[in-house]
Specification:
The protein is of the alpha+beta class. Helices cover 25% and strands 44% of the residues.
Length: 209
């Protein structure tokens, strides 16, 4: 009986330790994340001319939070190649990020996700330059709604401002869980931990052999 007690207590200790580690990842480590999504709004009204070796698109925006996870761009057609190149510039027009996105496996017309996971400065202006890597494609734009977002600014096609429009894009920001959500998650972890410990105790009482 003493051996069984030792075994059940050891398992319960492991459950407790794992549960405490999980709780620490919620707070103070704050590893768990949620996503805040924003866009310029408006109605999708048209598409740009081709983005190719001699034509590009720039969309300016203000960072709403301090970490941007990804940006979805609505691509209306892909007529050659498959790779979109995106370069992000800060307010001093210094490049802070560059990536290539494979559009070949995305249903087009449709949104193409540009992964970032980049730390940014809240309320600082950034410029997103869309070019190509041996490809040709077009992207959609939206009109500016009556109550426009202060975070989505103007766009331009090949250095020509597109007044009254912005890219059809969705901006995804990564945020730590809020206080309420963190407390709820920690309570859930604690409840599961107690239940597992109780089930372990019950199992060894019913199966002493």
């Amino acid at each position: 009986m003493r051996k069984i007690t030792y075994k059940s207590r050891a398992i319960e200790a492991v459950i407790l330790i794992l549960g405490l580690i999980l709780i620490l990842t919620v707070w103070p480590m704050r590893i768990w994340q949620t996503t805040a999504t924003s866009s310029g709004g408006g109605v999708m009204t048209g598409e740009t001319a081709q983005i190719d070796s001699t034509h590009d698109v720039v969309q300016k925006f203000m960072a709403q939070y301090n970490r941007i996870g990804s940006i979805d761009i609505y691509v209306t057609e892909l007529t050659a190649g498959r790779y979109m190149e995106m370069t992000l510039y800060d307010q001093n027009m210094q490049p802070v990020y560059n990536t290539y996105v494979d559009m070949g496996n995305t249903a087009i017309p449709g949104y193409v996700k540009i992964p970032l996971q980049l730390s940014v400065h809240v309320n600082e202006q950034y410029s997103m330059l869309l070019t190509q890597a041996y490809a040709a494609y077009a992207v959609a734009y939206e009109d500016i709604p009556q109550n426009p977002s202060p975070y989505v600014l103007g766009m331009s096609y090949q250095d020509t401002s597109a007044e009254g429009y912005h890219l059809a894009a969705t901006y995804h920001y990564s945020l730590p869980l809020g206080k309420k959500a963190s407390l709820e998650l920690m309570a859930l972890i604690g409840t599961v931990m107690v239940l597992l410990a109780g089930m372990t105790e019950l199992f060894y009482r019913r199966n002493p052999g």
